[in-house]
Write a structure and sequence with these properties.
Length: 201
């Protein structure tokens, strides 16, 4: 019996990335408490979020339905602090000024469960920003792009011009690491379009 793949997210970026690999899936966002526990290391937090998202959807699945749930979470971290989505222009300025001219990290965790077994992976990418002016940040805010982005920027959009280089996975910064996701899903018997055909030749 084929497994139904469920992405525990409504993120258009994660949906696009998963589609890019040729998977057939449905989206079911997970409603969880995303608060950080006191003194919780960032790595622990991002893994916990991905696992909880997957678990919530798995627990809501009716018995007998063969589903595989993929949860993911991404954190932008600078000097040990998680940078959330900006609440207004002033917040966006504060966040991007903190990233201006320095290196920060993006941590993306993925978790997969069939309701019984859970496995996960984490990808850490270093992102190097150029020095930003107040005028650049303000103009960027008015594009509307930073409003729903952790760290107040999107590497795949206008914000890409602020990034001098990255060390790690581009797709993980966008929201879903392609290589690690395909490898993890394959462990559970769900294969990308390319993995399904690689044995033909």
């Amino acid at each position: 019996m084929n497994k139904q793949l469920v992405l525990a997210s409504q993120s258009p970026r994660r949906k696009a990335l998963l589609s890019q690999l040729g998977y057939h899936f449905v989206c079911q966002p997970a409603n969880i408490d995303e608060s950080v526990v006191d003194d919780e290391p960032v790595l622990n937090y991002v893994v916990r979020m991905a696992k909880e998202k997957a678990q919530v959807i798995a627990h809501s699945t009716e018995p007998g339905i063969n589903r595989l749930i993929l949860g993911s979470d991404t954190c932008v971290v600078s000097q040990g602090q998680i940078l959330a989505k900006p609440t207004d222009l002033a917040d966006c300025i504060a966040i991007l000024k903190a990233l201006s001219g320095i290196k920060h990290q993006v941590l993306t965790a993925i978790a997969v469960t069939d309701g019984e077994v859970m496995d996960h992976d984490v990808v850490i990418t270093d992102v190097y920003f150029k020095a930003l002016t107040l005028a650049e940040i303000t103009a960027y805010w008015h594009t509307g792009e930073p409003q729903d982005k952790a760290g107040a920027y999107g590497i795949q959009g206008f914000g890409g011009q602020f990034i001098r280089r990255i060390e790690g996975s581009y797709s993980a910064v966008v929201g879903l690491p392609l290589y690690e996701t395909s490898e993890l899903l394959a462990k559970f018997g769900v294969f990308s379009a390319l993995q399904q055909t690689k044995n033909i030749y």
